[in-house]
Queue: 2 jobs
Job 1
Amino acid sequence: MAATKPRIKIPESAKSGELIEVRTLITHVMETGNRKDREGKTIPRDIVNTFVATYAGREVFRAELGPGISANPFIAFWLKVPGPGTFEFAWTDDSGTTVVETLPLNVV
Amino acid sequence: MAVRTATYTLMNRRAFVLAAGAGGLALPSWLQAAETAPAPVMAPFMERTQQFQDALSALLAGATPIEGKILVELPEIAENGNFVPLTVSVESPMTDADYVKSIHILSTANPVARVGSFHLSPVNGLAKVQSRMRLAKTQDVVALALQSNGIVLIATAMVKVTIGGCAS
C-alpha cells in the first residue's frame, strides 16, 4: 500500500540564511517482513525505503530507511535557508510508488 | 574342619572419604565437601549481531572511528519498542570545507541492523536528524557520522526496552 497523507511542518516565514527545522510525517505501515498473519504466512516487507527533500530545485536531504524505522515514519532535518524557494518531498516505497508533496517557504 | 568366618568392617561413606583423603586418593566432586561461596554477579551481555558487525565494517570502510562530537539522544527506557524517538546531532561547522556527509543508525540486536542513513550537505547548516525507531529488545544503538574530511565519529546509547517492537 502506498504512503498517504504527508504532513509537513515548516516555519510560517524565514529569513535568508536562517536555520529552520523541517518536520515531516507520512502514513505508512512500514511492514517489516518479520510478522506472520493468522494462517502463519509471513507478511511481506513493505516499507518506505527512500525519502528525498529538494528545495529550489536542488536536493537538500536524503534518507534511506530500513524496517527498523517506526510505522508512519517521522523524519526531521534542518536547513540553512539559501533563498526563496519551494520544497518538494518524495517518499518511495518498496513497490516503487513515490508520493510527492510540495510546499513553498515564505522567505522574507 | 575349620570354618572360616569372614568379618566385614562396616565402613560408612564419611569414613571412606576421610580415609581416602588421608590416603591421598582423588575423589569425584560429588563426594567432596560442597563449596558454599555465593555465585558471582554476571554483567548482562550486550550482544552484537553478525549483521551489525558487517554493517559497521562496511560503513567504516577501514577507518578507525573516534568518539565525541556526536550526540545520540534516546530514552534510557523505552516503554514501547515500536516507537522510540531518536535524535542524532553532530558538532560540525557544516561549511564546504568541513561538513557531515551522512549519519547512520545501527541496531545491535534487531533482525535488520541498518535502521536508517541520512545524507547531508553544507546547505543543512546543522547536522541533526530526528526520527522514530523500532527496538526488538534491550540493546545498544550505534550512530556513525561520516565527515567530508574522512573522519568517522561514533556514539553508542543503551536502551532498555519494556515491550519489544514487532520483530523489526
Note: The interface with chain A takes residues 82-84, 94, 105, 107, 110-112, 114-126, 128-134, 165-168 of chain B (CB under 8 Å).
Job 2
Amino acid sequence: MTPTETGPEVAEERGPLKSPEEAVAYLKEISPELRGCAIIDPNGHVLAATGEDSESWTDPARELVAAADAATGEPAAHVHVATGDGEVFAVRYGKLTAVAVAERFVLSSLMAFDLRAVLRELR
Amino acid sequence: MPAKPHRLLLDRVSGYADEAAAYLRRRRHMRKPFARVYYPQGRSSDIPSEDEAGKALFRAAAHVIEIAGPPRRPGR
C-alpha cells in the first residue's frame, strides 16, 4: 500500500452571513456556553432566534433593551447582566440588536465581541 | 543529586498555574450579581440592583433567561 501524502488540515473558510438565521446558527456553533440568542430589529421584532418559538423572545428582549436604555436615560450600546442563573447580554450595532443568554462566568468580552461581529456582518 | 534545570522551571510554572486557578475559583465564589450598561465611546455604568433601574434590568434578564431555556451542556 502506497502511503499518501497528506498536507496540514486547512479550516474551511466561512462565507459571509447572509441572514439572521445563519447568524444565530453561527453563534450557537462557535459558543458552547451560549444557551440561546435572538436578533431583533429596531422595532423590537425578532428576526431570528434559537428555540422552536422565536416569537417568545419578543417581549423579554424588548423589556431588556428598554430597561438598559432607561437605566441612565441614554441609549445603551451594550448591556451585561450577571445573575445566579446565567449571564445576559444585549449588544446593539447599527439598527440590529442581539440578545443572548450564556452560562455563568462566560468570558463577557468575547461574548460581546462575537455578538457585535455577527451584527456587523448582517448590516 | 541536583534537580534538572527544566524541572525547576516546570515546577515554577505549575505553581503559578495552581495559584492562578485558585485565584479564579475564589473570584467566582465571591462574585455577586451585577448589571452593567455600556455606552458609545467606551463609557459604562454599574446599575445597583437596589435601584428601580437595576430591578428592571434584573427582572428583564430573568425573563430572557427563562426563554433561553436550560444549559446546553449537562451539569452546567
Note: DSSP finds three helices and five strands in chain A.
